[in-house]
Amino acid sequence: MPTRRAFLCLLGVPLLAGCPKPATPPTSSSPNIAAREDLKVGFLPVTCHLTCPVTDFASRTSSTAHYESEKFLSWPDVANAFKAGRLDATFMIAPLAMVLREQGVPCHIVYLGHRDGSTVIVAKNSTAKSLKDLKGQTFAIPNKASNQYLVIRYLMEKEGMAEGDLIFKELPPPQMPAALAAGSIAGYFVGEPHAAKAEVTGVGRVLYKAKDIWPQFISCVLVVSDRLIAQKPALVKDLVRGIAESGEWAENHRDEAAKVAAPYFMQDEKLLKYVLDDPGRVSYRQLTPGNEEMTKIRDMAMKAGLLKTAVPISDFLDTQFIPKKIEAAKINMADAGKKL
Fold first, then answer.
1. Where are the alpha helices (DSSP H) in 209-288?
2. pTM for the complete prediction?
3. What CA–CA distance (Å, rounded) separates 139 from 135?
4. What is the distance, to the nearest Å, from the Cα of residue 86 to the centroid of all Cα atoms in its chain?
5. For the chain, which domains are there?
6. What is the pLDDT of residue 20?
7. What is the rounded end-to-end Cα distance, in angstroms, of the chain?
8. In a 10 Å sphere around its CB, with 0-12 CB exposed, 13-18 middle and 19+ buried, how is residue 9 labelled?
9. How confident is the model over 95-112, as pLDDT tens digits?
């Protein structure tokens, strides 16, 4: 297992190129479009971050602000982009946000990305009925600073497993289904649709959904820089409103949300529908981060050796930008599903 020092060094490696989506030209029907604000928001192609591309899509022709989603494929890339100031807003796994805060990166958590939305997958022919049946085998996680890692450690303890009973391997989420198919890992815990992909291709099956282990599970949060909060608080407020309203829309328009997100994720629309149409697999409501639940995540991160100090959660959460009333976004589906 890498030491905490080695993990923090990983976050300091030179930034690899992200995969930004080409900007969409403003339409002629959008007045004063040249004067609008443009803000890049980082995300990974997981359904935990679905509201990011939906908000991008909804704001493309806005005359006031466009929230351009910028896709990354690994958490170190996201962390480095945020630390370097290339991003002032991004979705990020919650424990990683706490690590950055401990490192002195000036930022705040302003909202959540989702509830639930992650799944434990094992090989299709695996006889495992519980996590303890994987003892001694290799298990993949997206990152040591992910809540997936912390929650699996929690489940190990609950099932009477010892610290070294699983061999953890960090893998970028898109690589996990192939690794399972190749037999190099026995299972993995990750944000969708990278678990569902193993199901639909016949190489894996569900062992646990996140809600089975930790109801109302949180993986990712929306983090913004203190610079953005200080210089453009109205833009932060509008971003949070956009994410909240996109989530409310996605709750009742799941097939349409899959169609919108597919080109951003560069994933099969049918795969996203498979996830979104499965009741209880992922939710985009109740996204106000709670002090108690975030403190629990922090304490688990300290126990795992990711944090040295008790990051003061009440100071780290900034909920002033969350709208009191959340209405569903108004989404024009005319261009949905097209390459942007």
1. 210-213, 226-231, 233-252, 254-265, 269-276
2. 0.86
3. 10
4. 18
5. 36-116+218-335 (3.40.190.10), 118-213 (3.40.190.10)
6. 36
7. 41
8. exposed
9. 999 999 999 999 999 999
